[in-house]
Amino acid sequence: MKYGVNEQGYYGDFGGAYIPEMLYPNVEELRQQYLNIINDADFKAEFNQLLKDYVGRPSPLYHAKRYSEKYGCNIFLKREDLNHTGSHKINNAIGQILLAERLGKKRIIAETGAGQHGVATATVCALKGIECVVYMGEIDIQRQAPNVARMKMLGATVVPATSGSKTLKDATNEAMRDWIANPVDTHYIIGSVVGPYPYPEMVAQFQSIISQETKKQLLAHTGKELPEYVMACVGGGSNAMGMFYHFLDDEGVKLIAVEAAGKGVDSGHSAATTALGKEGVLHGSRTILMQTEDGQVVEPYSISAGLDYPGIGPQHAHLHKINRAKYVSITDEESLQAGLLLSQTEGIIPAIESAHALAYLEKMQFQKDDNVVICLSGRGDKDLDTYIKYFGY
Amino acid sequence: MNRLNQLFQTKKENLLSIYFTAGYPSLNTTVDIAEALEKAGADFLEVGFPYSDPVADGPTIQDSSQQALENGMTLNVLFEELKELRKLVTIPIILMGYCNPMVQYGVERFCKTAAEVGVDGVIVPDLPMYEYENLYKDTFAKYGLSNIFLVTPQTSEERIRKIDGLSNSFIYLLSSSSITGGSLNVSDAVEGYYQRVKTMELNNPLIIGFGISDNKTFSKACEYANGAIVGSAFVKYLGSRADYLEGIGEFIQGIKG
């Protein structure tokens, strides 16, 4: 693949494995084994079976007619929100739990921001009867009480990350520390296309089911495999990478990644990484991250916890740098309005993360025959409180 | 040959290195602390340049880093301090910190400035061997800076040999696979690992770190290595009393016995 990873784990200038020696054996074990494992027929059979029977795949590609009329093109929503646990996160969690099992691991750790990846991980651990420890920022635990309760009900232990800013990046640091202290029996399920190689590649592969299905479904809908536009929101970037994956080499397909501008790109309260960030090293890979002039990581802000991350996956950094994908941003307010519009034109309440991708439609010009695929990465149930507060229902 | 190499040529056992975070407990303390440590008998120093997300460190060093950043510590401030420090302190100085601040400063500029202010070596826990070898080695060499690698109980013999080949001052042997600030439980397994590395007869001296906090753990480490590093225990000490400069001699004596 032209835009794929090289042997050293780099996408152009980005990627690699910037990890302390204490993590080297863990990451090296993964690097050496994951390809053999995930290409094994037995793994593939179990993965596909679970995606079908447990997750409910393939997720529909829905032609949103009223929504399409509004924007003067053909809009197709890839319905990851209909997956078990309510988002695309489960695809990766299933893949990694099967991998962990085959690596002989007895314990799973994960980090979570909003709790979606934590819930997905707790879910697959319950499914397999494996111990699960989820690190979550102390502040996020307060903000996302229902997801904390869900994880506990699923049998996971939720450990508050009390260091630094007490949010997602600190939860990630704590999970890495746990992995350092437990190198032999523990597998770390990273929830996005971030972290040291091979994580970005592995997570992208597990999520690539999204674009793989989309191509077939779009062919059935339109007689063409390729749309004009493919759009998705980006925090770390796992749903976007899954949505872009099988379209990367189709140069005619325009890829649009939507970041969270928060209260505005220049407001000082934003998570628009490509607009505000510089190249550097974060959580094990060389990428683009929001940072001070001295290279200290800046705490991002977005109303959407899933986009509230100071970096992006290294492959996104590469696609951005070489202009294969266009990175744009949408504010809190624009995303909430887009969530309302989809609710009332199609009867679908989207996650605020996904609503960022939808909101960018307002800023685009279409030909009436354009086919546009948008990844509806998650459902809005978890965000009802935020919507209710904003719209005053 | 830098000060580190000279030190290891003249002194081969019971070497004591002390780590502290620059800018902690307050700004402009680096020189005073370093001076007191040299006077008290430390053989070389590790000065931490703080980072917001230090994944290899435990709560003690992370908190000290957070405090140092809030106090206004940056690489620029630190390099200014080190310039002063070198007028007063003669023992080797190693900078310890994470990749991102170094990358932002510019690796070449970082090495050049560090060498100019009298730094002898650098420890960057999240700088991988592949990246060092292919991207940074020549720059480090150009400015005479030693890059110090970590070895853990899980590091394979083959990889230790490779690290030995890439090292030119000493190898930092982690007492256990953990973050900093843990307590060292010198089990048979740990001793077995020390022994295993010792019998490899590497070219570079070995210094043991992580979990060295008192005379007992220091002495045990010195049975297998050329010396040991005390980090979190010293940082904890600095935070424990306002007149910390006064007690540094006593602290060092307590470690050396």
Task: Report what the structure shows.
The complex is a heterodimer of chains A (393) and B (257). Chain A has helices at 24-38, 41-55, 65-71, 89-102, 116-128, 138-143, 145-153, 168-181, 199-207, 209-222, 238-244, 273-276, 314-321, 332-346, 352-359, 384-391; strands at residues 10-11, 14-15, 61-63, 74-79, 107-112, 131-137, 157-161, 186-189, 229-233, 254-262, 278-282, 285-289, 325-331, 371-376. In chain A, α4 (89-102) crosses α5, α4 (89-102) crosses α9 (199-207) and α9 (199-207) packs across α11. In chain A, the strands form 4 sheets. A 6-stranded mixed beta sheet of chain A has the order 3-4-14-9-10-13, sandwiched between helices. A 4-stranded parallel beta sheet of chain A has the order 7-6-5-8, with helices on both faces. Chain A has a two-stranded antiparallel sheet with strand order 1-2. Chain A has 16 helices and 14 strands. In chain A, 42% of the residues lie in helices and 18% in strands. Chain A has 2 domains: 19-50 and 89-203, Rossmann fold, CATH 3.40.50; 57-87 and 207-391, Rossmann fold (3-Layer(aba) Sandwich), CATH 3.40.50.1100. With 393 residues, chain A is α/β, with parallel strands linked by helices. In chain A, 60% of the residues are buried. The termini of chain A are far apart. Chain B is an alpha/beta fold and 257 residues long. Chain B has one domain: TIM Barrel (Alpha-Beta Barrel). Chain B has a 9-stranded parallel beta sheet. In chain B, α7 links the parallel β4 and β5. Chain B is globular. Chain B starts with a helix and ends with a helix. Classes of the chains: A alpha/beta (393), B alpha/beta (257). Chain A binds chain B through residues 8, 16-22, 24-25, 163-164, 169-170, 173, 176-177, 180-181, 183, 278-284, 289, 291, 293-297, and chain B through 51-56, 58-59, 62-63, 66, 69, 74-76, 98-105, 125-128, 130-131, 149-152, 154-156, 159, 174, 177-179. Chain A: InterPro entries: Trp_synth_b_CS, Trp_synth_beta, Trp_synth_beta/beta-like, TrpB-like_PALP, TrpB-like_PALP_sf. Chain A: It is an enzyme of class 4 (lyase).
